[in-house]
Amino acid sequence: xxxxxxxxxxxxxxxxxxxxxxxxxxxxxxxxxxxxxxxxxxxxxxxxxxxxxxxxxxxxxxxxxxxxxxxxxxxxxxxxxxxxxxxxxxxxxxxxxxxxxxxxxxxxxxxxxxxxxxxxxxxxxxxxxxxxxxxxxxxxx
Length: 141
Prior knowledge:
Layout: E1 11-21, E2 28-35, E3 40-42, E4 45-47, H1 54-66, E5 68-83, E6 86-100, E7 110-114, H2 116-122, H3 126-137
Parallel strand pairs: 1-6
Antiparallel strand pairs: 1-2, 1-4, 2-3, 2-7, 5-6
């Protein structure tokens, strides 16, 4: 895994702002996941496997955590923070949800689709809100 290494080796991860058009009214909806291990609400993301590109890792993590295939769009700002004394760098993409269905699993027990403001309010970490804000700044109404 890319996360192995010394304290000065960053943990590399990737994820996405997963979005869709509401089946009810066509409005923009954002996928927000609940991770029971951390009891938080987050964007889908995870550590890269050894030799895996950030984009491939983002697509894999979205599929693993949400059960959904997606089509990647534009690159969003990365998020950098410290986890247990190590720097973690998470690269993000906008990604449109396609086919698939969510099933609760060990890592993610809930997925909800919310309008942008509600999604922003549900996210636990400010770093995820910043990524969502960057996505929204580039989204046409």
